[in-house]
């Protein structure tokens, strides 16, 4: 029996602060959905919104109690969560997880929010990655490729027609990591992928080399657009819609860059099969954690129980345009979103994006190395530099 209920009189005139990392136009969505919590409990919520850079600067101060912080804090799963667990002694949520039977709801994400079987976060939103394209363009070439050979053949056909086959913008650096993530997942599996990004495997390993050998096939066939370092991911979203590139690898947030009425023209397909591991997908997951310094633990846990509900996650994510991770939640009717939900529910496992699976020091150096690789295609130099970065940032 759930032991987290309180009478309205006990909770009246109480309040909680919720720290949120928000993109533009998201605040009202959260306020509208969270208003239901106040109606149910009489606990007033105050949002503490920050943009990406400001939030990531404030979070360590809140967790270290250098500055009074919100009671409940937005964060991201996997290594970004794990790095906080011991450094700031985050409270465990084991009893909440068990009492709400959250293994049923979020069992597929449990490895990304737990350390030594202790639960430290509640997932509330995630989104899928894959291949996006404009349907009239891709249909001229027989549809989206399902195999690596199919992708290579598609590149040849598009290039022969004068169309840049694959859109890639490396101005910000991070979009290039999606290619490493997916090639490594498809060729070597999720366990190997996690061990590599944790620093447990040498980048000189032959299995890592084959990742770059496959990637170089695309470079050698000039599959990517020119001037990659002068294109942002948003530039690529625009060029894809304007039929200046054929296909791109990106997260579902790309859909928000297209006019709503134009999204019906856009299509989605999983990353092609390459090796024996075809059922692992990338799905960055947003979570809530407890501030260890909050004096309102019971009320904060009641808020987490509210956020963990299927109806809450359905309503929130439909409006955000993302996916609810709860197994019983309802997904938006938007075709690109539904395609992602189908993909993730059929996956053998989901993992986080590159930057959330490793340490920030390694990620910063690795991104620069990967960006340079797609310019020069030198596998030996790339592996040497990645191994040096591993030794200097991931090893004790």
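^ Assign residues to that structure.
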């Amino acid at each position: 029996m759930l032991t987290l209920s309180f009478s309205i009189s006990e909770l009246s005139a109480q309040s909680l602060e919720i720290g949120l990392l928000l993109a533009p136009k998201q605040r009202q969505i959260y306020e509208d959905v969270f208003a239901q919590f106040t109606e149910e409990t009489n606990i007033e919520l105050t949002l503490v919104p920050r943009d990406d850079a400001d939030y990531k600067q404030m979070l360590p101060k809140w967790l270290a109690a250098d500055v009074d912080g919100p009671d409940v804090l937005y964060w991201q799963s996997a290594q970004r969560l794990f790095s906080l667990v011991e450094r700031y002694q985050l409270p465990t949520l084991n009893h909440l997880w068990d009492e709400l039977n959250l293994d049923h709801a979020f069992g597929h994400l449990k490895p990304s929010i737990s350390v030594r079987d202790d639960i430290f976060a509640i997932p509330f939103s995630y989104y899928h990655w894959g291949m996006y394209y404009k349907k009239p363009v891709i249909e001229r070439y027989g549809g989206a490729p399902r195999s690596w050979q199919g992708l290579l053949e598609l590149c040849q056909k598009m290039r022969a027609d004068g169309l840049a086959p694959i859109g890639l913008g490396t101005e910000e650096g991070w979009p290039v990591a999606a290619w490493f993530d997916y090639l490594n997942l498809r060729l070597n599996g999720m366990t190997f992928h996690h061990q590599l990004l944790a620093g447990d495997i040498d980048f000189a390993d032959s299995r890592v080399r084959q990742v770059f050998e496959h990637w170089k096939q695309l470079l050698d066939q000039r599959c990517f657009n020119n001037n990659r370092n002068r294109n942002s991911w948003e530039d690529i979203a625009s060029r894809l819609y304007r039929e200046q590139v054929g296909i791109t690898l990106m997260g579902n947030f790309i859909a928000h860059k297209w006019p709503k009425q134009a999204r019906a023209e856009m299509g989605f397909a999983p990353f092609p099969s390459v090796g024996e591991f075809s059922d692992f997908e990338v799905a960055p997951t947003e979570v809530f954690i407890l501030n260890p310094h909050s004096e309102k633990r019971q009320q904060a846990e009641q808020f987490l129980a509210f956020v963990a509900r299927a109806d809450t996650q359905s309503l929130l994510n439909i409006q955000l345009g993302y996916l609810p991770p709860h197994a019983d939640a309802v997904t938006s009717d938007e075709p690109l979103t539904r395609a992602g939900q189908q993909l993730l529910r059929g996956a053998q496992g989901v993992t986080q994006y590159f930057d959330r699976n490793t340490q920030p020091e390694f990620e910063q150096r690795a991104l620069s190395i990967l960006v340079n690789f797609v310019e020069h295609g030198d596998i030996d130099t790339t592996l040497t530099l990645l191994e040096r970065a591993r030794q200097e940032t991931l090893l004790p």
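The radius of gyration is 22 Å.
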